[in-house]
């Protein structure tokens, strides 16, 4: 995105023109940014050619997934619904891994029938359930087991997944029990050791620590794994204060790891692929003055973008039409939902706004629409894919008749 003649544009179209036709709130995705992110990711790790499985939970739009599939990516899914949408988008089943701590028997059974690459299990009980389903289907099923490496990713507590107090994965003792169980099973092929320590990671050092832990465990575990699934978690720069994750150093740490272990690497990136491609355009409904600040009441709300309310996340918020006049009071950008947590950001220095002005909330491609809801019985926003000067509606604005 950039300003052209003081108007914010995405690719070759300004947002003012987009909203005049499609209204607000609207999710807009840049195809060229998506392409750039995928190619950069592939280039950064080409020295060992990993299997890249896009984390569907970060963005579940089937049209987005279809575009990602064209670059040869697979999918990381965490529910039967996500598996269905990955298959509908044309993702090769042999490039799909099924993660998550609570897969039901029907989900496991469906995954087996679809012949996906791996079911990444997170407990001995789950592996016994997979074994049961495999016997019924008379199949030998490839699985992974997720290790909890007790590694602090130095990220928000709400999105940390690799510490011993988190619900994810198994400890070293349980891992050995699982290895022994799989050795005597005729229906389970333990192919993968999986690990994922958290999300929005901007420092390569937690990954280095994780790799050292995994390496030590592999050296002691009497089992030859075909794959090591390193998960995702690579962060993006939501603000100018954030530093980018150093892919070069992470790549170097993995190459060092691969000198000791003859395995194929799997990645599960989501946010780093799709996060900064998306912008939520919203309109100022009202401006309400208070003693210390002004409330900028938008037509987008926490049901459209949950991250600020859920995590306290801060997204860069900018005007669609630029001016040189600034407000003397702080602006607090809020939505119309009947919750005090329905707010996006408070900014001390912002250009003067008036009602009906357009606002862009940036970097919402990941966990924006996928976390949206109909709370307060509000319809979900339209989703648009911008490719050069072309606009494609990839999900229509929800109508009240769709859910009432």
Summary?
The protein has helices spanning 15-22, 31-44, 62-69, 80-88, 105-113, 124-137, 172-183, 205-220, 247-260, 271-274, 307-311; strands at 2-4, 7-10, 13-14, 26-30, 51-55, 74-77, 96-98, 118-121, 141-146, 188-194, 227-229, 264-267, 278-289, 293-298, 317-319, 330-334, 343-347, 358-362, 382-387, 390-395. The chain contains eleven helices and 20 strands.
The largest sheet is: 9 strands, mixed
**Which CATH architecture of the largest domain?**
Alpha-Beta Barrel
Helix residue percentage = 25-40%
Overall tally of domains: 2
Task: Please provide the count of β strands.
Answer: 20
- CATH superfamily (homologous) name of the largest domain: Alanine racemase
Shape: elongated
For this structure, what is the CATH class of the largest domain?
A: Alpha Beta
Structural class call reads: alpha/beta
Mean pLDDT score: 93
Looking at the structure, the CATH topology of the largest domain is TIM Barrel
Strand content: 15-25%
Distance separating the two termini: 37 Å
Low-confidence stretches: 156-163
- Which radius of gyration do the C-alpha atoms yield? 23 Å
Helix count equals 11
Describe what this molecule looks like in 3D.
The protein is α/β, with parallel strands linked by helices and 404 residues long. It has two domains: 2-29 and 275-402, Lyase, Ornithine Decarboxylase, Chain A, domain 1, CATH 2.40.37; 31-271, TIM Barrel, CATH 3.20.20.10. Helix content is 28%, strand content 24%. It contains eleven helices and 20 strands. The protein has helices at 15-22, 31-44, 62-69, 80-88, 105-113, 124-137, 172-183, 205-220, 247-260, 271-274, 307-311, and strands at 2-4, 7-10, 13-14, 26-30, 51-55, 74-77, 96-98, 118-121, 141-146, 188-194, 227-229, 264-267, 278-289, 293-298, 317-319, 330-334, 343-347, 358-362, 382-387, 390-395. The strands form three sheets. Strands 4, 13, 14, 15, 16, 17, 18, 19 and 20 form a nine-stranded mixed β-sheet that branches. Strand 19 and strand 20 form a beta hairpin. The longest helix is centred in the middle third of the chain and has 16 residues, at 205-220. Residues 156-163 have low confidence and may be disordered.
